[in-house]
Amino acid sequence: MKKKSNLKLIYKNSENCQIFFNKNIFLKKNITQILKPITKKNPVFVFVDKNLHQKMNLKLYCKKLEKELGAEVFSIKGGEQVKSLSYFKKYIDRIFSSGVTANSFIIAIGGGTIIDLAGYISSVIYRGINFISIPTTLLASADAAISCKNALNLRGGKNQIGSYALPKYVFIETTYIYNFLPSRYFWDGYAEIIKHGIGHSKKLLDHLKLNKSKYLKKKVIKNLNEIEDNEFKEDITKVLKLAIKSKVDLFNEKNNELQPVYHFGHTIGHAIEIATKHKCLHGEAITIGMLIALEISIKKNKLNKGILILSRKLFKKYNLPITLDKKIFNKKIFLKAMHKDKKYFNKKNYFILMNRLFKISNKLISIDENYYLNLLKKYIV
Ligand SMILES: NC(=O)c1ccc[n+]([C@@H]2O[C@H](COP(=O)([O-])OP(=O)(O)OC[C@H]3O[C@@H](n4cnc5c(N)ncnc54)[C@H](O)[C@@H]3O)[C@@H](O)[C@H]2O)c1
To answer: Are 279 and 268 in contact (CB under 8 A)?
Structure first.
C-alpha cells in the first residue's frame, strides 16, 4: 500500500488536522478529485490570492472548482491589507448572502495573509465551519497554515482580533509554490523556521546548521540548473517536514495553543512591521525581534552568548537581513505599536525570553522602554 504523506495535528483531543505534502493539488485534474470527497455536496467558498491567480494561471483551476464543487471563488490581492475588518465584513456578507451552512467549507489558497483572513472568517461563522488551507509561501507553509491561530489587524496594531481554530486539511505543494515566489519572500519564510530550530527542535537546528545546498549561496533563486533545481525542491520539502513535525510534536505534547515559542521575537517584530508600514516583511521583522530578545535573554536570563552568535550566523546563511533601513523606520509609530502589544500591561512591555537553547521560558519579563530602544538602535542603519 502507498504510504500516506501526512502529519497529524490534534487539538483538544477532539479535532484533527491532516497535513499532506506534494499531492499535486495544483494540477487541474487533481484539484476536484482530491477535494470533492472531502467537501461532498456542501457549499464551498474559496479565497485565492489574485497575484497567484495571474502568475500560476489558476483561472482554469478556479473554473473547475466552480463547476465541479459549486464553489464561490473570491479572488483577492494578498498582502497585510486583507487582514482588516473591512475585508472581513465584505466577505462574510457575501458568504451569508450565498447561503452558508454549518457544514460549509472555506478553502484558502495563498500566503499567510489570505490564510489569516479566510481562517478567521471560517472560525467565527456558526462558531466554526470547515477550513482547508493551501499555503503558497514558505512562511505560510511552515507556520501560518498550521498554527491553529488566525488574526486580523486593527488600525495601528497587529493581530489584535483573532481566534484559535484548526484547519481540517493542509495541502503543501513545494514544487509549484517556489517556482513563482519572489526570492525575498522565500527567504523571509526561514525566520520562523530558524525560530523553531533554536526554540525547541534539535533535529531541525542540526539540519539548518549543516545544510550545504547550493541554492543557499544564491540570494536570488533564479535560473537553477536541473541538479540545483532538484536539490532545491528536495531540501525545501525536507526543511518543511522537519519544521512542521517539530511544531506538531510541540503542539500535541502540551495540547496548548499558548506556547511561548510562538511569541519569541514577535513583540519587537510586530511593532517593526507596523513602524515600517510593512516594508519590512514579517520574517525580516521577527529576525530583528529575535536578535533583541536574545540580547535581553543574555542579560536577564544568563543565556549563553553563543546562541546569539549562532542565530546571527543562521539568519545570514538563510539570506535574512539583520539590519533595518532607517529610511523606512518611524520611531513614533514603533512606540505606539509597542503600546498596543498583547503583552503590554501597566505601561510596561513584557517579553518572552530564552533560558537556554531549545528552552523558551513561559515567564513574562517586563523590560524598560529605554532599554529595548537602545538595543534596537544598533540594528537601524
Ligand atoms: N496565523 C499564524 O499563526 C501566522 C504565523 C506566521 C505569520 N502569520 C502572518 O502571515 C502573514 C505573512 O505571510 P506571507 O509572508 O505568506 O505573506 P503574504 O500572504 O502577504 O504573501 C506574500 C506576497 O507573496 C504573494 N504570493 C503568495 N504566494 C505566492 C507565490 N506562490 N508566488 C508568487 N507570489 C506569491 C502574495 O500575493 C504577497 O504579495 C503576516 O500577516 C503574518 O502575521 C500568521
So the answer is: no
Domain borders along the chain are 6-181, 190-377
Q: If you search the block for the grid coordinates 523556521, which residue do you land on? A: 193
- Residue nearest to ligand 1 atom 34, measured at CA: 181
Cβ(95) – ligand 1 distance below 6 Å = no
Given the candidates 1.20.1250.20, 3.40.50.1970, 3.40.50.2300, 3.50.30.10, the CATH classification of the domain at 6-181 is 3.40.50.1970
Global pTM value: 0.94
Amino acid at 316: K
Question: What is the distance in A from the centroid of ligand 1 to the CA of 279?
Answer: 13
User: Does the beta carbon of 153 lie inside 6 Å of ligand 1?
Assistant: no
Range in 26-30, 64-68, 164-168 the model is least confident about: 26-30
Pick the residue whose CA is nearest to atom 21 on ligand 1.
111
Ligand 1 centre distance from Cα of residue 302 (Å): 35
pLDDT digits (tens, 9 = 90+) for 39-96: 999 999 999 999 987 777 778 888 899 999 999 999 999 999 999 999 999 999 999 9
Banded pLDDT at 258 (limits 50, 70, 90):
low
CA-nearest residue for atom 20, ligand 1, is 79
Kindly indicate whether the domain formed by 190-377 is annotated with CATH number 3.40.630.30: no
In Å, the largest CA–CA distance within the chain is: 61
Question: Does residue 2 have a pLDDT over 80?
Answer: no
Written as one string, the DSSP assignment of 33-83 is: HHHHHHHTTS-EEEEEEHHHHHHTTTHHHHHHHHHHH--EEEEE--SGGGS
